[in-house]
Amino acid sequence: MNIKIEPTQKVLSSFAGLLPIQKLMESFNFKDFISKSLPSQHYGVRRNAQKFENLVLGFGVGASCLDDMQILHNDLGFNIMCDEKKYTPKSYGNLLRSFDRYNCKLMNYQLVELAYKMRSKFLSKKESITIDIDSTVIKQYGKKMEGVRKHRNGYLCLDMITACDEFGFQYWHDVRKGNTHTANGSKEMIHEIFNRMPHTSHYKKIRKYVRADSGYCQKEFFNSCFAKDARFVVRMRADMLEPLIPRINNWVAQNPKRKDCIMFYDGRECEIGKTYYTRKKCHGILRVVVIRALKESLKNHVLAESPNNYDYFGWISSIGEHEMNNEELIRFYRKRGRIENCIREMKSGYDLRHYPCLKLSANKAYGLAAAFAYNFMRCLALISGQKKVPYAKTLRIRFIHRPAQIVRHARTVVFRYAEHHYKEVSNWLDKITQIQLGYTT
Question: What's the per-residue H, E or C state across 119-144?
């Protein structure tokens, strides 16, 4: 096939699929919503709100640094979505550097409230909400970056902590100093997430759950969950679990022929036992569920019963047996893998492996812009009716990268799509226009 190229005078855009995202942001009144949390330095709150919205749209398209924003503005379609306000990378950097710790906290609170609004629009019939919490190390190479510290493995790093619900909406996002203990700040996170839950009849009856790994196995974390009437299940630390193992007498073997049989994390057959845990300054008696599997080296030996012959794995929980039996509790906790996928998505799909600023609060603001973009992309996927929400790469291929011709008529801008793209985009826009501000009762 002989392929040739020719120039055209028509104005084209490769990001015309951003239109539903932009309309979605308008439906949630995003610019006014975040204005009260933005710094007022430099050019005022209104212009800063426009810059922050542009950053969110840039993350939606796939910008991986501030320099990418200038390149994206060369696309007329992207520039129109940004209200034709073109800013330089230095201008975006000035906005991020104008954030202080107080502004970042306010913006995190806005993220919580917006996540609840989105959940109310698309998942209003759910009788429970499950918050997964986790943190991750982010390797950095800039020695002069504020907050960068040496990890125990020898490399420089920052630390990111996040909280998502069971459908992937992000409720908290914070960039912390490197080598920070994973549970630091979790009390404030739990308090703010549940304290900002809407006061509607639906949310007053909703059951609240929290899942976390062994780094959060602390009495302060337990008490903060008790204070907010949130049931929790946390993987138990080995030093807490070992003294409790002799108390367990009745181990229940699992039938490996069952399809839903509980197995050890590496696939070995296991037994399930339970006991209870109490401690001073910790409210209530907590339930402990433990699984054990014969050590791999002793698999083919006939041995006397001894605790040393087994590997153990345990969970501590405030969820009663009347609500979830032992097997159900283990399956419930194992769904916590979603938070790992969320973190991987933020680091890979939104390129939060790298932060652009020397100032820690500026990097916090940069991460929050990515978190808002992440939530809007999840919304768009739910609007399209997908049962399994795909990740950023697939979302951008399906939703964002829609070529269109741009035609201007006086004060009107028209995006001309291909026929099959037009049908899909118009269907999304119809659904977005039906979204009303406020919570469902």
Answer: HHHHCCCCCEEEEEEEEEEEECCCCC
